[in-house]
Amino acid sequence: MLNCKQLQFNYPKSRPILKSVDLNFGSGNIYGLFGKNGEGKSTLMKLVCGLLTPEFGYCTLFGESTHARSVQTLKDLFFIPEDFELPALPIYTFEKINSVFYPNFSREHFYTLIEEFRLYRKQDISKLSFGQKKKVLIAFGLATNTPLLLLDEPTNGLDIPSKSQFRKILASSINEDKCIIISTHQVRDLHSLIDHMVILDNAQVIFNQSLSTVSDALWFGRPSKENESEVLFSESTFGGRVILNREFQEESEVDLELLFNGVLSNPEKINSILKN
Amino acid sequence: MDFDNSKPIYLQIAEVFYENILEKRWKEEERIPSVREIAMLVEVNPNTAIRAFNHLQDLEVIYNKRGIGYFVAKKGFSKVMEIKRKEFMEHTLPDVFKKMNMMNIPLEELINAFNQEKNEKE
């Protein structure tokens, strides 16, 4: 559905942010985009939705270049950036003005979400807190029903109950026709929703796997005496968890944080096991 | 739902199903929530929820009526009992034995504790 080919980008006078990035995103999945600070997650998202121009390479959504920003493409994607400005308008005016650009927009869904987030349609957006503004944008983004939804650090600024609400909303909105890409550092907020992990490091994609492949091949947990020697990666903390070759052990839940650290410390090792 | 981070989430969802069936909140031949509703309730990816449903269908705890939804199987309750008993015998007990060995707890002490608990309840 969404393809990135040999994507290359750098900001003026800076080192390359992305070097020849190839990625394919399919519908029906929630992708987690991970990487340390400044490794190009947000840049990749902006390239995908046509807000930045690649140095080389391209992104296509349903075969159309996203950089061309045609009406055809823009109606099919929505991007919720980490930082954003919203106009000083009442929520319902904001909805009226912007919803016309999205043919599958559901007003009913939008106002249900607004109510669930304890906001009112007549509230002036400029008088809302950062977290509340984010809720307006999240509600709007989900109500657009676009096939592609990009979320950059969506849980930043959300209070504790809203994070759970957000997970519920996201779980109910994904379907076979949609693709959701989430970049986040708050692994714990979203680990139960993500089913595919992409890691960016040193301007490249160093990891790109579905979590079902990962849980088939690797085992996460506390080591016992018998398997101490086969550890692929271990946390350095006392009593820390480890990654092992799963082999005949029972399936374990993928620990995204551990996997992320394991891949960063030795990408070749983990990737070579997953290839077999 | 709070996930313990060692067991796969789909199996943890299955545990909730077992509990509901054993406590008769979900009765045999009764309709249970849909995949989407469960995904939303426990805040997981619907693909994970589908895995839990498929797993329980394979174990004949629930079944699917095409176009209507999922139901607890006719013998769902006894199936769950069987599964939980097997789990107790194959996983919980060996674990207890291991700990008893480690701490030098003789079997008699266990029997006494068991009888005492039983008496207190009666």
TrEMBL record, chain A:
One of its GO terms (molecular function) is ATP binding. Pfam families: ABC_tran. Keywords: ATP-binding, Nucleotide-binding, Transport. Residues 2-227 form the ABC transporter domain. Gene3D superfamilies: P-loop containing nucleotide triphosphate hydrolases. CDD domains: ABC_DR_subfamily_A. The keyword Zinc does not apply. InterPro entries: AAA+_ATPase, ABC_transporter-like_ATP-bd, ABC_Transporter_VariousFunc, P-loop_NTPase. This is ABC-2 type transport system ATP-binding protein.
Automatic annotation (TrEMBL), chain B:
SUPFAM superfamilies: Winged helix' DNA-binding domain. GO terms for molecular function: DNA binding; DNA-binding transcription factor activity. InterPro entries: Tscrpt_reg_HTH_GntR (IPR000524), WH-like_DNA-bd_sf (IPR036388), WH_DNA-bd_sf (IPR036390). Keywords: DNA-binding, Transcription, Transcription regulation. Residues 7-75 form the HTH gntR-type domain. PROSITE patterns: HTH_GNTR. The keyword Magnesium does not apply. Pfam families: GntR (PF00392). This is DNA-binding transcriptional regulator YhcF (GntR family). It comes from Flagellimonas meridianipacifica.
